[in-house]
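Tutorial, part two.
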Amino acid sequence: MAWTKYQLMLAAMMLTTGSINTLSAKWADNFSAPGCHDSPSHTFSHPFLQAVGMFLGELSCLVVFYIMLCHDRRSPEPKINQGQSFNPLLFLPPALCDMTATSIMYVALNMTSASSFQMLRGAVIIFTGLLSVAFLGRRLVASQWIGILITILGLVVVGLADFVSGKRDDTHKLSDVITGDLLIIMAQIIAAVQMVLEEKFVYKHDVHPLRAVGTEGFFGFVILSILLIPMFYIPVGGFSNNPRQVLEDALDAFCQIGHQPMIVLALLGNTVSIAFFNFAGISVTKEISATTRMVLDSLRTVVIWAVSLAVGWEQFHGLQVLGFIILLLGAALYNGLHRPLLAKLPCWTQGEEDSGEREGLLSAGRGSVNEAS
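Running the prediction step on this input gives:
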């Protein structure tokens, strides 16, 4: 079936804004500028402030939801289903997970390449699958277990590629690259917990996706903004790149922005793109399919990788190609993208396998609604 112009626009928006989200965050990290009190020029290393900007983008989805709701109520036949009434505090636990995972990932992005950052986020499949079995009572079918094993293999290959490139490149120290990769994997465990919490406590209330994203964005923005105050006084030694070597120096960030206004453009790109990416992702799932959303999400990894190579942020490594292909295969199997091909075989019978993969697709479509970066 041919796509309509609106569906093509949504797919292009999701691919473009999803790519811009990671690339703009990495672009901000690559800037160097003096800080406060005429401190020497140093890189813009402010992951927690960047995370606040990302949650501001998610919060804007709540504004969009209420604008759409007001417009819908004025129409003769309202179409928006608000779902059941719910306690907004239900979103607090998943929002705390989102806040923690996002902050860790922005720290990791300072240490490793944008392409590896995007590829390693595929690890969320492993932990989401295992946690859904343990806490949601879900039964994974054979293809999903195979997908998880293949994803693990892909992560090993990407990690090996980073290990080899870390010895050759001057952009990142080998120790930083390894630490960054491990932090990304750790963040995916927390992101998987977030998805399980949403599945168990939030989605049974049939909350509108934009409202869900916006509510979590509200909690993340408020809590992390408040936490910037104690972070200003917590020393972390050599772990931090800011002159005062504290967990987060927001004042230093604003001083750097004053010396290098282009940083604002990178931060705005991150904030605005996450809002449009969430809207486009939700709309693609609704208007086309969750399968298409998974494919587009994989394609943005290719775009991020291509742009990073083109602007000289990283060098080409064949192992990364192999790792990406393996990760893509693992994600395809886990999300049931092979099912339409198998359905054409005369010996194929739709049964438990078909049901399990459809469940996996739905889970993937819901779980990636508030994906960060």
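The CA atoms of residues 142 and 353 lie 8 Å apart. In part three we will examine how such features are distributed along the chain.
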